[in-house]
Amino acid sequence: MMSRISSCMPNWSVLPHPRDRLRRGKRAIRHMRIVLWLIAVLAPFAFALPAAAQSKVNIEQNFADSLTVLPKEELAVAGGFYVPAYSSVAMSQGKLRVDFSVTLSVHNASESQPLVVKRIAYFDTAGKQVESYLKAPVALRPLATVSIFIPTDDVRGGTGANFIVDWAATGDIAEPVVEALMVGGVANAHYAFISQGRPTRTATKK
């Protein structure tokens, strides 16, 4: 009987000592402090990523199939477009701001000639340049397209954002088609609309 009773008794030699539990608690607190410190240090960099990513847009790489070699002939015709881009829109009597993604597309409407795109620049509501997307002119193949995408969380452009697109060609050419597509929503409502580019000057021979 004594052996049966003793077998039910706890083995106090293997139970954790109160000091061990205290040490584990202190280690857990230290680990938590380290994690919180890392979050505080790295959070600003995480929030800065969307804006920084935009400066890495590479048209030459992303649209290699749409591009061709620059023409060797003189660029005798030139033109430009102003494209309104509504990155943010005020709603509910100005009490609500809705942000949109923006896709700028530049289409070569010619079936036979390359279109030289000399500049694609993005400006904010105050007219300050936010980004420039070309380091050097590029030539679009006939009927080819290049695009610039600005995600919803990049609100640097604001309610009056816009693009300037400058182009040229070696001779008479169909005028390019330049437009911006905005997509976004609030609650269960979704919106998509297009803004057409306005020529800033008539294409003329130099």
Task: Please give a structural write-up.
This protein is of the alpha+beta class. The protein has a domain at 59-199: Sandwich (Immunoglobulin-like), CATH 2.60.40. It has 3 helices and 12 strands. The chain has helices spanning 2-8, 18-54, 59-62, and strands at residues 67-68, 77-84, 88-91, 96-107, 115-123, 129-132, 138-140, 145-150, 162-169, 177-186, 189-196, 198-205. Strand 5 and strand 6 form a beta hairpin. The longest helix is centred in the N-terminal third of the chain and has 37 residues, at 18-54. Residues 1-7 and 41-55 have low confidence and may be disordered.
In short:
This protein has 3 helices and 12 strands, in the order αααββββββββββββ. The protein has helices at residues 2-8, 18-54, 59-62; strands spanning 67-68, 77-84, 88-91, 96-107, 115-123, 129-132, 138-140, 145-150, 162-169, 177-186, 189-196, 198-205. The longest helix is centred in the first third of the chain and has 37 residues, at 18-54.
